[in-house]
Amino acid sequence: MPTLRILYIECITTGTGLFWKENDKAFSKLLGNILDAQNRLLGTAGAITGLTPLKVLKDAINVAGDVWKEVTDLIESLGLDGSDDFYISLSDQERQQKVWPLQEDYFELGNERPRITLDLTIPYDRTITVYFWERDTGSDDDILGSLSVISHELAGRGGEPDTATGIFVGSKQENSLYYIVFSGGVALNSDGKPSPLGTSAAALSKIGSSSSDIQVDLADLLSVTAISGVPGGVTLFAIKGDRKVWSQYYDPRVENPAWSGWFELGGGVSPETTNVSAVSSLPGAASLFVVGLDGRIWSKFYDPRIADAKWSDWFPLGDNTFPPTSVVTAISGVPGGVTLFVVGYDRKVWSQYYDPRVENPAWSGWFPL
């Protein structure tokens, strides 16, 4: 299952505090030149690959007329110190399907806080579009831009490592400009086709790290669930503020047993819930269930019977969607079997099961009780 990762946001400038009409017009024109040059020079809706962040596009824009230097000079001369109330959603309707920030209405970005590292993970099937917004009080929110990507596999890049990619988003009307760095898909241009630069192998920036290298900060730990898969053994599953699932286990069967240390299992959990459900249906096995960012129930499992066993990818259990605050309850009634229960939008209890005893076992599909 592909995932889109928003790695960081850098605020280049905001228009707050810019009150002089002539400067306002000049500023709008320059920001428009940057956004237009991005689209024209790259032949896309804004995708760039092969990053030294900002440098590639700044160089391209300078070739188009040195507008980057004009912008930075004007920012410096005016001493701008404003900020924007920034948020990200999966909808082109304001304040709908917001995926960041998670606990607040918005995140303030500007000269005092020009950059925020997110590593926001959003699972998707084939394509996904995210929208970047400035939140206003007393008027409609302003959409600053959007990003559409297609999975590497569908774009003919199956198996290629993730690459860091960047776009500019901004508003000529609001005099704001941001730089968004992301990975996990090939950017689509304005006609819905993969960017011609999306297959560039130049200066690839690999992301991620092995679990053994991760030092987990538990300051934003939201919840923890525990199961026992073997006698004397315990496995923990936690949701952190990054909306990902993390795990740690104690296995008494190994020599000199000790807690493993935390490692990431990925996923994208609905912002309105902190719950991950877990069940062990076989010795040493584990299955996880969460309400995803898209409202569907997502699962991931570990089956020790498989050669070179490892955690599966996350996958959705059908297309039914559920309230983001719903909690999935999971039980195992037979070895290898799992039954789920969750409250739907109609306030009915919905269920789905996996029965390994039948021929060609598969998940049943959702049905109301």
Q: End-to-end distance, in Å?
A: 30 Å
Helix and strand succession? EHHHEEEEEEEEEEEEEEEEEEEEE
Q: Count the helices. How many?
A: 3
pLDDT averaged over residues: 74
Count of structural domains? 2
Question: DSSP strand (E) fraction?
Answer: 25-35%
What can be said about the biggest beta sheet?
A: 6 strands, antiparallel
Spans where pLDDT lies below 50 across 5 or more residues: 16-21, 41-54, 196-219
Structural class: mainly beta
Number of strand elements: 22
Q: What value does the Rg take, in angstroms?
A: 23 Å
Principal-axis shape = elongated
What does this molecule look like?
This protein is mainly beta and 369 residues long. It folds into two domains: 3-199, no CATH class; 211-368, Neuraminidase. It is built from three helices and 22 strands. It has helices at residues 21-42, 55-63, 67-78, and strands at residues 3-13, 83-89, 98-100, 107-110, 115-123, 127-134, 142-150, 165-171, 176-183, 186-187, 221-227, 234-240, 245-250, 263-266, 277-279, 286-291, 297-302, 315-316, 329-331, 338-343, 349-354, 367-368. The strands form five sheets. Strands 2, 3, 4, 6, 7 and 10 form a six-stranded antiparallel beta sheet that branches. A four-stranded antiparallel beta sheet has the order 5-1-9-8, covered by helices on one side. β19 (329-331) and β20 form a beta hairpin. The longest helix is centred in the first third of the chain and has 22 residues, at 21-42. It is elongated, with a radius of gyration of 23 Å. The chain starts with a strand and ends with a strand. 35% of the residues are buried.
